[in-house]
């Protein structure tokens, strides 16, 4: 996947709002209720949640993310720390395993 230097210092939400965003079950999450915005509003962090987003070219990427405010006592005013791990390959493997677990190899049903 990769992120180039052109994004350093850019507005995270201005960039990510351009792409559909999904929870781990593939349900679309509208921009105004995405988890990072909830962290900014409430100060309540999240850890190791999996999210998907559609990239240019129609491919879906899956990321494991954690997010917290640098100063949790100042929701709406604090900077935020986010980390991401690309888990797209693991997700594709898990989806393939689930597909074959539900299909009869002989009849492919």
Keywords:
elongated, 4 strands, 26% strand, 109 residues, alpha+beta
Q: What is the string of helix and strand elements?
A: HEHEEEH
Gyration radius, to the nearest Å? 17 Å
Average predicted local confidence, pLDDT:
87
State the major sheet: 4 strands, antiparallel
Query: What's the tally of helices?
Result: 3
What is the general shape? elongated
Q: What's the N-to-C terminus distance?
A: 34 Å
The percentage helix is 25-40%
User: What's the β-strand tally?
Assistant: 4
Biggest sheet strand order reads 1-2-3-4
What would you say this structure looks like, in words?
The chain has 109 residues and is of the alpha+beta class. The chain has one domain (12-102). It has three helices and four strands. The protein has helices spanning 12-16, 35-42, 88-102; strands at 21-22, 46-54, 60-69, 80-86. A hairpin with a 5-residue loop joins strand 2 (46-54) and strand 3. The longest helix is centred in the last third of the chain and has 15 residues, at 88-102. The radius of gyration is 17 Å and the shape is elongated. 6% of the residues are buried. The model has no long low-confidence stretch (mean pLDDT 87).
């Amino acid at each position: 996947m990769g992120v180039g230097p052109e994004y350093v210092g850019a507005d995270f939400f201005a960039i990510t709002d351009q792409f559909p965003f999904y929870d781990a079950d593939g349900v679309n999450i509208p921009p105004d209720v995405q988890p990072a915005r909830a962290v900014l509003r409430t100060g309540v962090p999240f850890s190791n949640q999996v999210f998907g987003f559609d990239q240019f070219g129609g491919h879906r990427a899956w990321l494991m993310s954690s997010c917290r405010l640098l100063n949790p006592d100042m929701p709406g005013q604090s900077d935020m720390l986010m980390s991401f791990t690309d888990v797209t390959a693991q997700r594709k493997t898990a989806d393939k395993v689930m597909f074959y677990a539900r299909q009869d190899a002989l009849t492919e049903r």
